[in-house]
Amino acid sequence: MMYNGYSFWGMHMLWWIIWMVMLFWIFATPYNIPGQKRTAGSPLDILQKRFAAGKISNAEYQETKATLTKDLAK
User: Fold this and answer.
1) What does DSSP assign to residue 7?
2) Which one of 13, 46, 47, 50 has the largest count of C-beta atoms within 10 Å of its C-beta?
3) pLDDT of residue 33
4) Which DSSP symbol is given to 31?
5) Where do the TM regions start and end (predicted)?
6) Cβ neighbours of 56 (radius 10 Å)
7) The whole model's pTM is what?
C-alpha cells in the first residue's frame, strides 16, 4: 500500500504506534500525573483533614471516628 509515494509501513506507521503508546500512558496509568483529577480519599482521611483544619471539635472527631471504624470493621 502506498501513501503519497511512501510506504505506509515505514515512518508513518511508527508515528501511529508512538501516539498510541503515549495516549495509553496518559489515560491508563494509575500514577499521579500532573493535571490529572485526584480522588477525594477515604472517609477517615476526610475526617482527619476536617479536624486538622479546625472545622470540627475533638468530641465530634472522636465520635465520628468511632462510628466510621465500627462501620469499617463490619
Assistant:
1) E
2) 47
3) 59
4) S
5) 6-28
6) 15
7) 0.46
Cell 470540627 belongs to which residue? Answer: 56
What nine digits make up the cell of 67?
462510628
- Dig out the grid coordinates for 73 from the structure: 470493621
Identity of the amino acid at 60 = E
Region for residue 5 given its phi and psi (left: phi exceeds 0; alpha: psi -120 to 50; beta: otherwise): left
The torsion angles phi and psi of 6, rounded to 5 degrees, stand at -115, 150
pLDDT at 71 over 90: no
> What's the Rg (C-alpha) of the chain?
25
Nearest to 68 by CA among 31, 39, 36, 41: 41
